[in-house]
Amino acid sequence: MTGTNGVFMDDRQVSKVGSKALLKRMNRMRVLNTVRERAHIGRAEVADITGISRASVTYLVGELVKDGWLIEYDKGETTQAGGRPPILLQFNPDAMYAVVVMIGSERTTVAVGDGNAHMRYRETQPSVLGRSADEVVDVVVDMIGRALDTSGVDRQRVGGVAIGVPGLVDAHNSIVHYSARLPVMRDIDLGSMIATRVGLPVMVENETRLIGWGELKFGSGRGYSPLVCVSVTLGIGSCIILEDRMLSGSSYSAGQFGHMTIDEHGPLCECGNRGCWEALASSAAVLQRARGLDAAWAAEPTIPAILDAVKNGDRQAGKLMHETAVHLGIGLANIINIVNPSIIVLHGKMFEAGDAFLQTIRQTVSSRALKLPALNTRLIVSELGEQAGLAGGVTLVMRSVLESPLEQRANPFYV
Amino acid sequence: MTGTNGVFMDDRQVSKVGSKALLKRMNRMRVLNTVRERAHIGRAEVADITGISRASVTYLVGELVKDGWLIEYDKGETTQAGGRPPILLQFNPDAMYAVVVMIGSERTTVAVGDGNAHMRYRETQPSVLGRSADEVVDVVVDMIGRALDTSGVDRQRVGGVAIGVPGLVDAHNSIVHYSARLPVMRDIDLGSMIATRVGLPVMVENETRLIGWGELKFGSGRGYSPLVCVSVTLGIGSCIILEDRMLSGSSYSAGQFGHMTIDEHGPLCECGNRGCWEALASSAAVLQRARGLDAAWAAEPTIPAILDAVKNGDRQAGKLMHETAVHLGIGLANIINIVNPSIIVLHGKMFEAGDAFLQTIRQTVSSRALKLPALNTRLIVSELGEQAGLAGGVTLVMRSVLESPLEQRANPFYV
DNA sequence: CGAGGTTAAAACAATAAGTGAATTAACCTC
DNA sequence: GAGGTTAATTCACTTATTGTTTTAACCTCG
Q1: Contact call for A340 and B253, based on CB within 8 A
Q2: Which of A357, B45, B221, B257 could form a disulfide with A353 if both were Cys (CB 3.0 to 4.6 A apart)?
Q3: What CATH number did the domain enclosing B104 receive?
Q4: Which residue segment(s) compose the domain that A188 sits in?
Q5: A116 CB near a chain B CB, below 8 Å?
Q6: Is the distance from CB of B265 to CB of B258 less than 8 angstroms?
Q7: Residues B322-354 pLDDT 10s
Q8: What pLDDT sits at residue B3?
Q9: Is A83 exposed, middle or buried (0-12, 13-18, 19+ CB in 10 A)?
Q10: Alpha carbon of B114 to those of B119, B160, B382, B384, B400: distances in Å?
Q11: Do B265 and A260 touch (CB under 8 A)?
Q12: Torsion of CA A110, A111, A115, A120, to 10 degrees
């Protein structure tokens, strides 16, 4: 369509011809993001940080204030040796709201969040597993409607809907191509199906990628690049974000380390291959192996039950989790060697297994990864937890509103 | 220095503030590259392809012609139903020359190439292995001097020197941080050392990354993105290029798949880890294993000797190469799963082992990689061979000349 | 308390890149 | 050679950025 393959989520911008509109969008975003990241900041400092001239910053900030994205929240606090105090700027979280839907294999969640990813509303329903695609759409549309009606936010200010789905998603066209967990989602144009019924722009993205966005913009990965986010649940999902761009690949599966072989002779994986990371270190793998053990918690094992057993000093459980930590470490070492990220954010219940578990992971990483990249990679556990995906949805919606061509968008805020 | 980590080789551009100069550089490059890629093209078609207006294209092409980058090589050949024929444009390979140096562990090569990466001069010397850093600089400076003197190209038209080194290179600052093959190269500011003595801009880059650039711009990978280039020699080098940007990582080691674990219980690697791809599938690994065999060619094995043995039906050699192909395939499958590239270019003598060898690789890949990304990935053997690195050097020099701010550069061509 | 200093923000005029519309150039066919 | 067609150029216009100047708002010190 555009000629070059869509590799980044936002390659429209980069590969588009350089027009004055593009220039302005770039600088506008730059100013807005600078204020968002370092709040309590005046125009002059924004100019210094961004490198944009003071005159342009004044102009752009003026527009952003007029449109409601920024607020001049305080006049005060002079700097240094006297001089006029800056007019302090702040991102206005109420400029825009986003509806975020997470269609998981364990539950369905809909939330409404403001620009700071604070959720004003939330509803959780059982998983849609087993339903048809149309039924899934019905459920989601229903939940979105209820969210819009009862959350109390001004519908005019809702910038759009972001939907997270486990599986292969063409985020450009909002199409779900394939999902191992939700098999009915096969080449489904989820975006259009929902957009026509809720009357809002709809974006669809892979679940783990939403989590990655959340961690990058609101979580412990704030500002790092390249960022790798690894989410361990039944499978292992992951993504790579580079300078605010999601690495997408030629068919939407870049950054997925789950099916990386780390043991060529290892156990068979769902995908047909042997020794995938996911077959050795996911929750599913742990549960699978637990079932083969002889213990009370092993009859119908759950991750929390196993973690409990570890806490109570159960030898078998301890060994199981130790081995899992080693396998996680091997995969993480690979990520470090291959991607050389500045941060890896670890996501999922399993990382609440305690210090010993993390210790084993870290030891494995530092013994198996190359020294230099290992030293340069922060390995941290998500603080956002379940919130990450929702926050990521807010990010997507906000970007889409901000980056859509100015002309095309009747400015909905403070007109 | 720039605030954000240098992730792409050319992030100056992307992260820099949007100025009119940037805009012009972008469009200029776009026009130039369009003409380079689809030669025999008129201004109107360039405008259609790039999306830039006809007026701007006229202006930009005019400037590029004036500066000597493009030539109006023919007036003829009208299109369709009459009408003025376009003035056909062509990239002018003589607009700029580049000196390219490859400091390998087996030899040192210096070449002078034109804008089409045709080499006008070449000299090869034995490897600098064992020499001190200063001696290496002496050798290189000497060779560059001879190249400039005897190649016959106008020194005014030499845009710079590109140097390829096996190892960890900070291409931004032209510093070689570490090299397993040339251990004296440790935190050496090779760029400055050579630049001051030859009086030309000098760029330093990792050997495999130069090969990748060559394949992308002049080889079989032309225009593909994302492109992965894998070079199998004693070790395994590799790189990832995305939309004309080299993936660099937070400490210059992104895209290196050599030390990716594919067998956690595998043999010990030089790096201290177990089962690295490089420890299982590189030439060194093959030679190592060959030495353990009982055959005439196994006493002092070389890759050509082993390949010969295979051709002559030697069972042991056949098995050895088959297993190597499988290991190569496993690593390539990982690359496909992780990066989801649209092409992987295979580089190195080993890929001349014949159809059976490649067949085994392909079979392994298609049985072990995920179906969709595997279908979307072309797996091809380099046509450029030894030339690739040299061509890549030309690319780097040309980019640096074209992308340097217009004001700063006294235009050396056709003034 | 007011003059002089300092910094921030706004206003203004200048610059320059991209673009649409109009014009000119170069070819075709009938 | 008239009318049609497409390419390239020219020109007037728009607009984003910028350097400079001006105004605003604070400080300190005598």
Answers
A1: yes
A2: A357
A3: 3.30.420.40
A4: 95-212+388-403
A5: no
A6: no
A7: 999 999 999 999 999 999 999 999 999 999 888
A8: 29
A9: exposed
A10: 7, 12, 21, 16, 15
A11: no
A12: 170
